[in-house]
Design goal:
The protein has a five-stranded antiparallel β-sheet with strand order 3-4-10-5-8. It has a three-stranded antiparallel β-sheet with strand order 7-6-9, with no helix packed on it. Helices cover 14% and strands 33% of the residues. The protein is an alpha+beta fold.
Length: 144
């Protein structure tokens, strides 16, 4: 790795491991050349059977996901997309709920824009579950 204020070089797999796969976005320190509020880039390395913990909902970003290797399935309401050959990709816009599943060991490159804080999807803790249940009761969507 080599970086200064204008140039950064690295390796996607080890760099991505440090931040859940994300190489560039708002979550990097402002002094890091990989900081961006315009776009996020992820190098996703997924073993066979890896899947998203829960659906991403109320999305406010546009996303492009490109298959580098393996086989990767994306689920959207009423539609399934399987990326099976290197270079296959899918693009979806704001408001499109989604989830994913690695049908084989897979590497995917994801680009999302804009880079918006607060969209990290982790396993909810008890406080998050209580908040989600309250929001579901007040928004018309089902609780988890």
């Amino acid at each position: 790795m080599n970086h200064d204020s204008t140039i950064y070089t690295g390796k996607a797999t080890p760099d991505a491991a440090a931040d859940r796969g994300w190489l560039l976005g708002h979550f990097k320190a402002p002094s890091d050349p990989r900081h961006s509020e315009d776009v996020e880039i992820k190098w996703g390395v997924h073993p066979k059977g890896d899947e998203r913990e829960r659906w991403a909902t109320a999305e406010k970003r546009t996303a492009l996901l490109v298959l580098i290797s393996g086989r990767f399935r994306l689920e959207f309401p009423g539609r399934t997309v399987v990326l099976a050959e290197q270079g296959d990709y899918v693009l979806w816009g704001r408001g499109v709920d989604h989830s994913w599943y690695a049908e084989e060991d897979a590497v995917v490159l994801t680009v999302r824009w804009p880079s918006i804080p607060g969209y990290r999807v982790d396993e909810p803790d008890e406080q998050d579950r209580s908040q989600e249940q309250w929001e579901a009761g007040h928004s018309g969507r089902p609780a988890l």
